[in-house]
Amino acid sequence: MEIAIDLDKLWAIRSALPGTWGLVPTMGYLHEGHLSLIRRAKAECDHVAVSIFVNPTQFGPSEDLSKYPRDLERDLRLIEPLGVDVVWNPTPEIMYPSGYQTWVEVEALTKPLEGAIRPSHFRGVTTVVAKLFNAVQPHKAYFGQKDAQQAAVICRMTRDLSYPIKIVVCPIVRETDGLAMSSRNKYLEGADRQAALVLSRALTAAKALYDAGERDAEKLRARMKEVIAAEPRAQMQYVSCADYDTLAELETVTGKTLLSMAVMIGKTRLIDNFVLG
Ligand code: PAF
């Protein structure tokens, strides 16, 4: 496994190895969710690149970039046995050279849900992912369903900009008690860890209504809100029952539907989702 920081080294490694390439973009502090993406890439492609870059442009002014968890040595130890060809760990100066002023922006799909609360977030995500795509030129790129809106936005960007890349969206990996794996779970201590289960509990409660035949989207949203309100440590930011493709809020559930939510547990912001239909 090679480790590249600058673009020249990355390109040298990339161009020396013919065959199909899979890219797994990450911000590091890897967990089993990331490792499942790497294993899938390894199973489907001749070569695999993993990027580790805490992308400053996707953090809002009130979000503490310096507090985002980082541990490169631990990440490399976790990746090493998986047969990855190259880990690309660029510096902010390589990704955003002095005078940087070029952005990639997806419009309507970035406005609701996460975009409504974190207005500049997706511009940072799409810009950095486009730069990762340009640098690695993968045949396939792997993202987690946990960030459902991010996956939808990246699929849209890939189609709109005619990247010849297949986007593979992999299932959420959960702890045995249902908590969706996230690098941010590291911040959940003591009672907050238990309280964080309210997200999967709320989604499960709404899905139970759906499974019993309920198709009124407002009733599904109300059920999620009710479960979250019963957890004193939880502060709901949004709950949504939306069309899977457009992310527009639904009145009636007919086709593929995304139930999603963002909830503050103490100071930790968590998101989770289920797909219906
Ligand atoms: O999902 C993430 O970890 C990040 O948003 C990504 C896709 C690596 C871009 O920085």
Q: Cα distance, first to last residue? A: 41 Å
Count of runs of 4 or more consecutive helical residues: 10
CATH architecture of the largest domain: 3-Layer(aba) Sandwich
Strand content: 15-25%
Question: By helix and strand content, what is the structural category?
Answer: alpha/beta
Mean of residue pLDDT values: 97
Characteristic terms for this protein:
277 residues; Pantoate--beta-alanine Ligase, Chain: A,domain 2; 2 domains; 10 helices; 9 strands; globular; binds pantoate
Describe this structure in words.
The chain is α/β, with parallel strands linked by helices. The chain has two domains: 2-170, HUPs (Rossmann fold), CATH 3.40.50.620; 183-272, Pantoate-beta-alanine ligase, C-terminal domain (Pantoate--beta-alanine Ligase, Chain: A,domain 2). It has helices at residues 7-16, 32-44, 72-79, 92-95, 114-117, 121-136, 148-160, 191-195, 198-211, 217-229, and strands at residues 2-4, 21-26, 47-52, 86-88, 140-144, 166-170, 234-243, 257-265, 268-276. The longest helix has 16 residues, at 121-136. Residues 25-27, 55, 58, 125, 128-129, 147, 150 line the site of pantoate.
What are the SSEs and their pairings?
Layout: E1 2-4, H1 7-16, E2 21-26, H2 32-44, E3 47-52, H3 72-79, E4 86-88, H4 92-95, H5 114-117, H6 121-136, E5 140-144, H7 148-160, E6 166-170, H8 191-195, H9 198-211, H10 217-229, E7 234-243, E8 257-265, E9 268-276
Parallel strand pairs: 1-4, 2-3, 2-5, 3-4, 5-6
Antiparallel strand pairs: 7-8, 8-9
Helix pairs in contact: 6-7, 9-10
Pantoate binds at residues 25-27, 55, 58, 125, 128-129, 147, 150.
